[in-house]
């Protein structure tokens, strides 16, 4: 049982040749097989072979030989990448995403591709073509989404590390529901090249891990400009672990009143308040503030995200790759039936709304307005960071909920993003940290939002809180790491 | 009276090495589907890039067409489904076209007219589709090839103006060096919007696509004006539609009725950051702009070239570029131009070549011109030498030696030859002396025949007359 | 606003989705629900001249004019459903 140890410990054992990468991969594969949480869509059949190749190589970095799970909307050369959609059920990419190249350069082992909401559209994991992932804390509850499988497999200790993607909360929400640490980095901090686009101006890839330090370790190797992604930042890459353990007393914290309003479950609010009390006691300045336009984030997100998605998903036409209907007579029926069969309900709904808000005069009425409103909302956040270092609030309005709730309410998946999507609209970094459990022993997550490229400061505070709380986050009650 | 109003949209394929938003190769002659980068195929997860050279070419074109240049630009997505459009959208410039409010001056019946240009923008080309056996075959080589679209205001009022505009535009872009502008090969594509009206309000327009050559521009517009005239004069209404030029019928035919507002769902491209252009950059490009036809015309007039030659030389850019490299005095340049637009052009046309594909060299050609002007060789010899120079690139002196061209200019030698001929043709000498002018021509012919045409005829005639008058 | 049958058909056509009559009915209601939410941004009073397309601070990112990373023809055709040795094939597209 080596994978339950911390990355640091595993690294020491690898260096001392007590264990080999192949031991870790065998253990991870065993863990996946044992579980019936449906966290994975595809297992990398070559994982063990790749690990054997590493067994005799020198351990050259701290992530050497560590198995990692990859959300199935990040393309992996020669490994099926489905976006949890029938549309790409037969799709074998011919290139690696930039993050995959970086992971391979560090000699990490891709263990498999994780389940998710179809094309990352959803907040419960239920829109997957491959059936939902279950929550390791309670199999009757959703794990959150869209990075459902990535949060689940880390939470259930199948693997220590995973990659997710976050467009409106898709890393932070499942991280919060599953009791793991999930970071949505600054927009552009990690290259999107190879991330199958949902909404180009909002999408980011981010690390999902068991603890804060390991999250920072993973960000360290993923961050940086990429010539293949023109929106990726030229800003210097930091050592994101460097502030961990440093004194937090001088950090100034803002708590948006909106984030602590009646809409938020009382149990969740109380847990956040407990954390705020710890911080105040430690001597940190904690102020409640208002952020103008925050209350418009859901419709604003809908216009921007769905507008962009309607265009991004136009390439799935059954011609160059992906599902093609067998039942067509001409080009129009080829298009319409391939897409009808290939896409699920949530995706279709979102593409149609996206087409609508860009159609004819609506481009002005809705889309232009949204671009202007987005500017104002972003300004609001920037104003806060003139005075404060971090913004804190709950990640979600509530804890993990029962299955089948979204099918009766088409707005549910959007409302789940209430507290997370403003961060995407402004392009800021934000981390979800487990801060405790509700009465049903379901994890509660708290968000720490930082200024642009200040992921290091987020980790600094998150690690401090993590240390204070000392929660046992293994659903099976194993050792804490 | 019904007045036609015409607007012209021209698409130009740019001559870059790479594509505009990817590193795919831009070369229309390659084998199918071999110039394709993963971006051109719109693979899931890929993101567009931007080729700086295309922005520069855009700025060049703006300068040549007197457009205002956008200092801050972004791109837009034009969304529609078509098998030749791999991403399901085309990256283009809707909101911030690189150029606006320009003009191109044409000369119509001796008067200058400014054809106003509404806007100029950068966009990407689609796949090439080949239709056969009820199937369409997609070649992605053309997908992502850079295009510049140039849109005039509805300010053209005859097919003649339209043709002159397209010709002038083609010539200007050719000299800018940004495109092959071959309408027949598709590197220049021309659509015309035509409407008729008897008042200040524009009438319902139709769009004519698929015009396959410059001469067809005039014909297509002429036919469309006539068609609309007939409809309107008989009390009918024009239907807003897209028509294409059928080069077998030599007429426009209906392609499709315009759908009620094409719904392209434009929105700003979030994958490409802003592009800014500084005054300094523009100035630098301006200072390196190649010499354009209007300027060339003035330059050639100052040399003293005749209008016909000016037209011919500008119409043949390879010859023009060669001509511009010649370092000769004006009178020699006139001779050089005569040779280039005469013998050289004839050779090129006959062999279906351009001058840069032959072996002729500037300095060698200069020598030839000097020899000819100094009468050291005859026109006929010059013609023969040029052909050899074009074929082999040999030095002019070597050719003269190989050919045994005597390059005789010594009067004494020539007189000896004349005397020999006169002795052999006493009868003709007598005829001449009896007033028969034809005899002179005959004698000239005999001398030229004897010398294989190597002598300067005017010199021969002068010396012959001297001998006869003795 | 409420989506009419025709409007659902229109957006489904824009999105190239074939819908059954039942689905059209379902989406009429669902899309109307979402649109009701979206309409909230129409009420917000802001100046409408400053847009934000993306939060990237980058500008003027370019490649130089050189081609590279060309796919082999086999790679181009690899994931296509309908192809021959040179081309990806679709039903005839007639203008």
In words, what does this structure look like?
The complex is a heterotrimer of chains A (481), B (470) and C (95). By secondary structure, chain A is an alpha/beta fold. Chain A has one domain (1-481): Amidase signature (AS) domain (Amidase signature (AS) enzymes, Alpha-Beta Complex). Chain A is 37% helix and 13% strand. An 11-stranded mixed sheet of chain A has the order 1-3-2-4-6-5-10-11-9-7-8, sandwiched between helices. In chain A, helix 8 links the parallel strand 7 and strand 8. The mean pLDDT of chain A is 97. Chain B is α+β, with helices and mostly antiparallel strands and 470 residues long. Chain B has 3 domains: 3-281, no CATH class; 291-403, no CATH class; 411-468, Orthogonal Bundle (Arc Repressor Mutant, subunit A). Helices cover 41% and strands 20% of the residues of chain B. In chain B, the strands form 4 sheets. Chain B has a 9-stranded mixed sheet with strand order 2-6-7-10-1-11-12-13-14. In chain B, helix 8 (330-351) packs across helix 10 (379-392). Chain C is mainly α. Chain C has a domain at 5-43: Histone, subunit A. Chain C has 4 helices and 1 strand. Chain C has helices spanning 5-14, 21-38, 40-43, 73-77, and one strand at 88-91. In chain C, helix 1 (5-14) packs across helix 2. The longest helix of chain C has 18 residues, at 21-38. Chain C starts with a helix and ends with a strand. The mean pLDDT of chain C is 94. Strand 9 (135-139) of chain B pairs antiparallel with strand 1 (88-91) of chain C.
Task: Name the features.
heterotrimer, A: alpha/beta, 11-stranded mixed beta sheet, 11 strands, globular, C: mainly alpha, Histone, subunit A, 4 helices
């Amino acid at each position: 049982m080596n994978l339950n140890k911390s990355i640091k410990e595993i690294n020491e054992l690898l260096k001392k040749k007590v264990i080999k990468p192949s031991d870790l991969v065998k253990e991870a594969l065993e863990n996946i097989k044992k579980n019936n949480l449906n966290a994975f869509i595809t297992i990398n059949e070559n994982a063990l072979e790749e690990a054997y190749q590493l067994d005799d190589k020198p351990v050259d970095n701290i992530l050497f030989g560590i198995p990692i799970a990859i959300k199935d909307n990040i393309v992996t050369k020669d490994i099926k990448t489905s976006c949890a959609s029938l549309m790409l059920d037969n799709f074998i990419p011919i290139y690696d995403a930039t993050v995959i190249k970086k992971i391979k350069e560090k000699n990490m082992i891709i263990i498999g591709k994780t389940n998710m909401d179809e094309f990352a559209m959803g907040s419960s994991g239920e829109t997957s073509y491959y059936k939902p992932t279950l929550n390791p804390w309670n199999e009757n509850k959703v794990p959150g989404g869209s990075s459902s499988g990535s949060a689940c497999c880390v939470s259930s200790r199948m693997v220590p590390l995973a990659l997710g993607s976050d467009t409106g909360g898709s890393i932070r929400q499942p991280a919060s529901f599953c009791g793991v640490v999930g970071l949505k980095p600054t927009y552009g901090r990690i290259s999107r090249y190879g991330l199958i686009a949902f909404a180009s101006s909002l999408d980011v890839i981010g690390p999902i891990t068991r603890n804060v330090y390991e999250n920072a370790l993973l960000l360290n190797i993923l961050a940086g400009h990429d010539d293949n992604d023109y929106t990726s930042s030229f800003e210097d890459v930091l050592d994101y672990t460097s502030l961990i353990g440093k004194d937090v007393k001088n950090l100034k914290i803002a708590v948006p009143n909106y984030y602590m309003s009646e809409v938020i479950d009382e149990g969740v609010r109380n847990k956040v308040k407990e954390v705020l009390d710890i911080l105040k006691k430690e001597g940190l300045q904690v102020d409640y503030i208002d952020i103008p336009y925050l209350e418009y984030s859901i419709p604003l997100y809908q216009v921007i995200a769905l507008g962009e998605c309607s265009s991004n998903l136009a390439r799935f036409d059954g011609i160059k790759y992906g599902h093609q209907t067998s039942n067509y007579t001409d080009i129009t029926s080829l298009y319409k039936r391939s897409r009808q069969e290939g896409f699920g309900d949530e995706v279709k709904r979102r593409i149609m709304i996206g087409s609508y808000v860009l159609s004819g005069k609506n481009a002005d009425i809705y889309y232009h307005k949204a671009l202007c409103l987005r500017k104002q909302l972003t300004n609001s956040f920037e104003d806060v960071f003139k005075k404060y270092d971090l913004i804190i609030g709950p990640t979600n309005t509530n804890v993990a909920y029962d299955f089948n709730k979204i099918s009766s309410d088409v707005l549910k998946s959007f409302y789940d993003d209430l507290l997370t999507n403003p961060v995407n609209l402004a392009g800021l970094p934000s981390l979800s940290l487990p801060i405790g459990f509700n009465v049903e022993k379901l994890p509660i997550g708290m968000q720490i939002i930082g200024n642009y490229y200040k992921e290091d400061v987020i980790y600094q505070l998150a690690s401090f809180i993590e240390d204070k709380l000392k929660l046992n986050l293994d659903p099976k009650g194993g050792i804490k790491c | 009276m019904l007045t036609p109003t015409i607007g012209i949209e021209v698409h130009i394929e740019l001559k870059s090495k790479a594509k505009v938003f990817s590193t795919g190769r831009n070369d229309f002659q390659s084998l199918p589907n071999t110039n394709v980068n993963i971006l051109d195929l719109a693979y899931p997860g890929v993101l567009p890039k931007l080729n700086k050279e295309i922005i520069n070419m855009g700025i060049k074109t703006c300068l040549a067409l007197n457009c205002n240049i956008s200092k801050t630009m972004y791109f837009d997505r034009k969304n529609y489904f078509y098998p030749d459009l791999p991403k399901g959208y085309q990256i283009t410039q809707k909101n911030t076209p690189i150029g606006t409010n320009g003009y191109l001056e044409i000369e119509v019946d001796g008067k200058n007219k400014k054809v106003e240009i509404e806007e100029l923008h950068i966009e990407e080309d689609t796949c090439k589709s080949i239709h056969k056996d009820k199937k369409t075959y997609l070649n992605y080589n053309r997908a992502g090839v850079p295009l510049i679209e140039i849109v005039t205001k509805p300010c053209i009022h005859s097919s003649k103006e339209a043709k002159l505009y397209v010709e002038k535009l083609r010539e200007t872009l050719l000299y800018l060096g940004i495109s092959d502008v071959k309408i027949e090969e598709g590197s220049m594509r021309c659509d015309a919007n035509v409407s008729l009206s008897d008042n200040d309000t524009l009438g319902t327009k139709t769009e004519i696509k698929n015009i396959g050559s410059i001469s067809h521009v005039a014909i297509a517009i002429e036919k469309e004006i006539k068609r609309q005239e007939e409809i309107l004069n008989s009390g009918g209404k024009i239907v807003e539609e897209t028509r294409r030029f059928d080069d077998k019928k030599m007429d426009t035919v209906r392609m499709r009725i315009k759908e009620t507002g094409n719904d392209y769902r434009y929105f700003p491209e979030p994958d490409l950051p802003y592009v800014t252009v500084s005054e300094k950059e523009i100035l630098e490009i301006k200072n390196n702009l190649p010499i354009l036809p209007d300027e060339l015309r003035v330059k050639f007039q100052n040399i003293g070239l005749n209008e016909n030659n000016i037209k011919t030389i500008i119409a043949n850019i390879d010859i023009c570029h060669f001509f511009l490299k010649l370092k000769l005095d004006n009178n020699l340049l006139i001779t050089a131009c005569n040779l280039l637009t005469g013998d050289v052009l004839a050779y090129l046309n006959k062999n279906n070549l351009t001058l840069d594909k032959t072996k002729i060299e500037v300095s060698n050609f200069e020598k030839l011109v000097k020899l000819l002007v100094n009468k050291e060789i005859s026109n006929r010899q010059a013609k023969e030498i040029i052909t050899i120079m074009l074929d082999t690139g040999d030095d002019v002196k070597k050719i003269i030696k190989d050919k045994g061209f005597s390059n005789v200019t010594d009067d004494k030698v020539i007189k000896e030859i004349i005397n020999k001929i006169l002795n052999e043709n006493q009868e003709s000498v007598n005829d001449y002396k009896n007033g028969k002018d034809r005899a002179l021509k005959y004698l000239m012919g005999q001398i030229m025949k004897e010398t294989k045409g190597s002598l300067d005829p005017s010199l021969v005639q002068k010396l012959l007359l001297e001998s006869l008058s003795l | 606003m409420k989506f009419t049958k025709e409007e659902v058909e229109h957006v489904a056509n824009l999105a190239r989705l074939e819908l059954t009559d039942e689905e059209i009915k379902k989406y009429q209601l669902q899309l109307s629900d979402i649109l009701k939410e979206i309409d909230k941004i129409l009420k917000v009073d802001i100046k409408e001249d400053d847009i934000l397309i993306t939060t990237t601070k980058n500008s003027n990112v370019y490649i130089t004019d050189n081609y590279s990373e060309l796919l082999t023809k086999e790679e181009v055709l690899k994931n296509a459903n309908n192809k021959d040795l040179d081309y990806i094939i679709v039903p005839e597209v007639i203008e």
